[in-house]
Amino acid sequence: MNINISAQNHVTLIEVSGRIDSTNAHEFGEALLGEIDKGHIQIVLDLAQVDYMSSAGLREIVSALKKVRGSGDLRLAQPSPRVQEVLEMAGLDSIFQIYPDQVAAVGSY
Amino acid sequence: MYAKETHLRIAAVPHQVPVACRFVAEAAGRAGLDEHAVYHCQLAVDEACTNIVEHAYQMRGNHQIIDIVCQVAAGRFTIIILDDGPAFNPLSLPDPDPTAPLEQRTGGGWGIHFIKKLMDEVSYSREQGRNRLALVKRLPSA
Q1: Nearest-Cα residue of chain B relative to residue A25
Q2: Domains in chain A, please, with CATH?
Q3: Quick one: DSSP state of residue B15?
């Protein structure tokens, strides 16, 4: 798993690639919560290059969303078909705002 | 010629779970499942083994191993997962609610839900002092 974090005006863009499972979900969660702790509360999480996500990864994005929503938001961009499938199984596709591409997600703030 | 049954033993520690996933993915591919079904098998085994590892960590003095057996028979690809932990039927847990709002979500319980959704059949039994979870994917008809 690789995590790349950048700033796009007032939005924090977090791009993740590879596999998110129970062996690295904690590291993934720390990256999300680390940004929120810095006050970066308008976040776009780009999951286009994530080819595998288990429930351990979902637990981290739900935890981050709970922490940020109210003051900011965590929005998803172009989840890969495999990530989209697990989001739907957990009913998270109706809880997260999901955008078809990164530009739309960043522009939604 | 593909052996009809293959076996892997791993230590019940987090970094061994991906080893089990790769083993099952290779067996599922050889059995003739398509890429999407192979992925389902891999994810189901990940969730099952992760639950065992998290549980096994709370025990001391047990063997703390997980055996994984892949079988091909009668048009079915079966994954059997065996562990030495205390008797525990994960299928007896209530399913989490996919329609629950964000504030009611606690984060846990999704692994077993995923296994039930991803596999065609799932069953649990306690055999010879071990927990036995069987996960089945039907093979595409020839």
Answers
A1: B14
A2: 2-107 (3.30.750.24)
A3: G
Give the C-alpha distances (Å, rounded to integers) separating B72 from A78, B30, B135: 37, 10, 12
* Rounded Cα distance, A64 and B79, in Å: 34
B107: left (phi over 0), alpha (psi -120 to 50) or beta: left
How far B74 CA sits from the closest chain A CA (Å)?
29
Query: With contact defined as beta carbons under 8 Å apart, do A37 and A70 qualify?
Result: no
Q: pLDDT tens across B84-107, in order?
A: 888 889 999 888 999 999 988 887
**Going by DSSP bridges, is the β-strand pair A2-8/B121-127 parallel, antiparallel, or unpaired?**
unpaired
Taking each helix axis as running N to C, give the angle between helix A55-68 and helix B110-118, from 0 to 180 degrees, rounded to the nearest 10: 130
Q: For residue B78, how many other CB atoms are within 10 A of its CB?
A: 19
B105:A23 CB<8 A: no
Contact yes or no for B119/B44 (Cβ under 8 A): yes
E strand segments, B18-120? 65-73, 76-83
Tell me what the mean pLDDT of segment A55-66 comes to.
95
The fold for domain B5-138 equals Heat Shock Protein 90 (3.30.565)
* Among B8, B4, B138, CA closest to B69: B8
Report pLDDT for B64. Answer: 87
Helix or strand holding residue A75 (H, E): strand A73-77
